[in-house]
Amino acid sequence: MTLLVRKALAPGWRVPLFLSLMKRTLTAGMAAGVLASALLPATAFAAAADDAFPRQSIKLVLPFPPGSGTDGTARVMGNEIAAAIGQPVVIENKAGANGFLAAEAVAKADPDGYTLLFTSNTHIANKYLFKKLPYDPIQDFKSVSLLKEAPLVVVVGANSSFKTLADLTQKVKAEPGRVSFASGNSSSRVAAELYSQSIGSPMLYVPYKGNPAAITDLLGGRVDVMFSDTTSVMSSIKSGRLRALAVTSQTRLNGLKEVPTTVELGLPQVILGSWLAVLAPARTPDALVAKLNAIFLAALHTDSVLKNFVANDSEPKGSTPAELDRFMNAEATKWSDIITKAGIQPE
Fold first, then answer.
1. pTM
2. Assign residue 67 a region: left if phi > 0, alpha if psi is -120 to 50, beta otherwise?
3. Which fold would CATH assign to domain 58-149+274-342?
4. CATH second-level architecture of 151-265?
5. pLDDT, block means (10 residues), the chain with 347 residues
6. Cross-referenced InterPro entries, in alphabetical order (predicted)?
7. β-pair partners for 281
8. Pair 294, 26: CB distance under 8 Å
9. Are 29 and 294 in contact (CB under 8 A)?
10. In the chain, where does the domain assigned CATH 3.40.190.10 lie?
């Protein structure tokens, strides 16, 4: 295990210290998992007691389509993990149904550490956007690690008449319900609705199965605007195919220094970001979660993953499972408040 993780660490890391910390984490996790494992199926108990984990491929299930920014991040991270553990990492895209398909598949998967959810804040937002879910976003999952955070970007096509956020606001106010916004996930929709509520005039909601399809129509001029995570649109902004009007944060992005924030533009209430995290089925033993946490933290600090994050102006995070638990609970409260403020009624 030591040799495998050592391969995944980026140059400059203090390897002995990291491995010492990982060893203590794994030992504590194994002790905590003894009692819980008594209630698990025999196959999961065997996996929890198996020091050779992982013995087979690990599957990352994504509620995003192939070609999306998050899909790209998952593949870069998956390559690093595969090299470190000596087993394949399979990316399974289950887009559509607002992320229900992917989340439900993982919630019902064997808690053996081999099927994980690679998800975003949409996972939490759905709890308040829909009256009934086929799973509980908190109770049916176990935290592995937070991966990264980033603000959203308000973007339009390069040929759009909207040169600034003020231009967009003026048009939305002049023609309520006429300006359309594309949405490939829940966080994108909530941000747009929060903006509409803040300026006192509605836009037309146009849902998509995922961000790639939404961005295609935005580039083609079939929809007017989109509130997107940086990972999905940064390359199109840099190439000049999309124009960024604002970022939904308090400070400007390093890669988009010329783009003002919503706070600067007089909309301090329109602050919203995106994040990525890894979750396991709820009954996954703590011993396995500790091992998975160490694997993802090591991959998180490899050169290729950090390069991917920097290219998309995302901030690498990393966390313990307990820290992600607290983060998810805080996010649940935050998204409940934001969705209420945006005036969105659960479907």
1. 0.77
2. left
3. D-Maltodextrin-Binding Protein; domain 2 (3.40.190)
4. 3-Layer(aba) Sandwich (3.40)
5. 34 35 36 37 44 92 89 95 97 88 97 97 91 94 96 96 98 98 90 94 93 94 96 93 96 94 95 94 97 96 93 91 96 89 84
6. BUG, Bug_dom1
7. 141
8. yes
9. no
10. 151-265
